[in-house]
Amino acid sequence: MDSPTLSEFDLHLFAEGRHWHIYNVLGAHVCRNRGVEGVRFAVWAPHASAVSVAGDFNEWNAGIHPMSLHEGTGVWSCFIPGIGNGVLYKFAITTDKGRQILKTDPYGQAFELRPSTAAVVTERGHFGWGDGDWLARRGRWNWQDSPISIYEVHAASWRHHGSGRWLTYRELADQLIPYVLELGFTHIELLPVTEHPLDESWGYQTTGYYAPTSRFGTPDDLRYLVDQCHRHNIGVILDWVPGHFPTDEHALARFDGSALYEHEDPRKGRHQDWGTLIYNYGRHEVRNFLIGSALFWLDAFHIDGLRVDAVASMLYLNYSRKEGEWEPNVHGGHENLEAIEFLRELNQVCQSRFPGTLVCAEESTSWPRVTRPPEIGGLGFNLKWNMGWMHDTLDYLAQDPVYRQYHHDKLTFGLLYAFSENFLLPLSHDEVVHGKGSLINKMTGDEWQQRATLRVLFTYMFSYPGAKLLFMGGEFGQRREWSEFRELDWSLLAYPEHQGIKKLVQDLNGIYRREVSLHGACFKPDGFEWIDCHDSPQSVISFLRTAKGETSVIVVNFTPMPRHHYRIGLPEGGNWREIFNSDSEYYGGSNLGNPYPMPADAQPWMNREWSVELTLPPLGAIILRPAL
Q: Which domain of life is it from (predicted)?
């Protein structure tokens, strides 16, 4: 790079909040100045009276390398010759009150391993990507008609090295990819691997929005992981946190002595629940910082999508606040108008510049049109987490089977809104921490019933409309609640009953991916139809999934009582076959099912001309389709 100075055009776009390659401008960049190798530094600090670069190359002396202010922009820059890749640095900022503070680079692309906090000059552009075919296919991908099955991973606790340390990004590539291929997931979602100081935050209190955490290796090591995923046809989604940031003194908080990235008013600028600060989305440069971060991951790391954390906390000015603790918008309402415009712009820019990438909202309220285009009043996300389905389903399965008949509406209510958004069904990390217990321990009954109910839950999820997400450990019935400090209980796979749960998830992924009826119309109301949603006395539901002329029938028995001679209506005659049974002996079940073939009877039932008598296994779900 031979550009030691910043152009007026760069600075103009940044001031407008629309410099989509700002990560190539601000921060630290190896370049040449009149034939001399060095590093250009640039930082936005409009309220500073002076800024300089301190680092290991000048013994952290703040007076040796001062920066110059570009008038009217708030951007400071300098070129330091004779240094390059790998040097450590921070910005020494003198506030307008004369106090000097030492800050890490908001645009730093690598950092020291915590608890150290210096940024590391990192030269990009030398990684040998081999995922061109994947990226080309992704650009043509019709995701709404495709299977999307996501394995959610916390990199520090999925598996540890034999010595007890974390796996590196490259070791994760060698071990995680074969495991995900075996299970059949289409994507991996990483809890935030953006740099963060506190292990216990799981990455959700981010300080390095342009840097992968050094806990697991270098930026190129993460590129290797993503590249290997793509070469094996696995997408990678990154958990991304634009809703708040921590108060650590070395990072963004009061960056130049003022509330620069946050609001000065704590009613707008402080998140009470998490002890963090809220971004000022009305400031052009702050929006540019965040959208630039999103684009950076899609560009520099070939990431396939972003899961945007805590969207609800961004949308509502009164989120988790009592009366008097928040300030209304200009219209007197509780909507954060600036955050709404930020999210719309984020989605438009990401999806236009990187077609085929997914931006998913973790949005827990009934905010309308989250996944509808901005031009019709939507926020523009591709997918929204279906928190209602998750809570209703887990609440239902926590009931003793005897009482489930009185809570049948928890199974049926979700279909009233299932196609109002493009929903993703999440069984995520949030449901297996902080005393909530593991998935399997949420299920009632003895151990056999718990395992059977977990198998029913997974079958119900994979056959229900929407994309799928499962947090690590759930796929084999992890018993202990998840902890970020230890690896999963892999020893459980020595037991057949846990192997059976894993085998069930593997087969469900396979059926979900093969059967067009189960994935081809996940976001369209004509892809789902109830056969019978009224059998609350027996706690049984049955429904159709259809797409592109293909049909599947799903029947679920939520009690431990087998149901013999249970008749359901069918959409057509001929022979039918059972293609999946969660009660199979292969999964640890009692192996109660239905023989092949099952000829449909010309007996009207449930307003259909054809029907069949089935045996419903205890705490079991079956999937039927017409025999070929």
A: Bacteria
Q: Which residue has the tokens 């005393």?
A: 435
For the chain, which domains are there?
8-121 (2.60.40.10), 146-242+281-518 (3.20.20.80), 525-626 (2.60.40.1180)
Percent of the chain scoring above 70 in pLDDT:
99
β-pair partners for 581: 622
Contacts of 453 (CB under 8 A, 6+ apart): 397, 443, 444, 445, 619
Which pair of tokens denotes residue 343? 């999210």
Whether 613 is a known active-site residue: answer: no
Q: Residue 125's pLDDT is what? A: 74
Residue 559, CB-side half-sphere exposure with 13 Å CA sphere: 18
Secondary structure of 149-185 in HEC code, one letter for each residue? EEEEECCCCCCECCCCCECCHHHHHHHHHHHHHHHCC
DSSP 174-242: HHHHHHHHHHT-SEEEESP-EE-S-GGGTT-S-SEEEEE-GGG--HHHHHHHHHHHHHTT-EEEEEE--
Catalytic residue among 10, 262, 362, 392: 362
Helix (H, G, I), strand (E, B) or coil at 398: coil
Q: What is the DSSP letter of 337?
A: H
What CA–CA distance (Å, rounded) separates 48 from 59? 23
The answer for residues whose C-beta is within 8 angstroms of residue 509's C-beta and 6 or more apart is 149, 183, 184, 185, 462
Distance CA 246, CA 251 (A): 8
Q: How many C-beta neighbours within 10 Å does residue 293 have?
A: 24
Catalytic site includes residue 430 = no
Number of residues written out for the chain: 628
- Given a cut of 70, is residue 2 above it in pLDDT? no
Q: Of 105, 227, 256, 309, which one is the catalytic site residue?
A: 309
Cα-based angle 74, 110, 237 (whole degrees, multiple of 5): 100
Q: pLDDT tier at 273 (50, 70, 90 boundaries)? A: confident
